[in-house]
Amino acid sequence: MNKRTEKMAETRAKLIQAARQAFAEKGYAEASMDDLTSKVNLTRGALYHNFGNKLGLLAAVVDQLDSEMAIKAQMKAEAVENEWESFLMEGIAYIEMALVPEIQRIVLLDGPAFLGDPSQWPSQSSCLQLTIAKVQHLIDTNILKEVDVEATSRLVSGAALNAALWVAASATPEEVLPKAIEAFKTLCSGLVKS
User: Which residues, as ranges, make up the DNA-binding region of this protein (predicted)?
Assistant: First the structure.
């Protein structure tokens, strides 16, 4: 990596970190351009050059956080030995992260409000591809019924995402979380071979 490329990567990282903090504390709408640039000694020009505008910066922050969520959910799933329970745990872990204030505000509330349908985000598309592979494996190992892999993967991913969105938007997220998890588990249980 040459010095210019390193400097650009460093600038992007600084802006994303500043934005994560500002968006988490104030929300996307209330975070000013100064909140996003002055704390890291950068200019608005640096923001525009790297992200196009404030919305482009939000998209980068959401992508980073959503990708981190997927990694954390996968790590929790890998800690469970039973393949079916591991698959369920990944979805449950994703739903549980709706209680994390930074994730709740940026990814699950402001993200959909300003970036649109989360199922169309690049990070969600990556998660879907991983889910497709896992569902295919569970069918191949005789754990799941013979179902359409893509349809099932989209529905399971959508259920976890929508459960997390519901928890985040609720006036009482801690009370809604166990209901969301129980419903997610019940829905998914219909896929298992008897």
Answer: 32-51
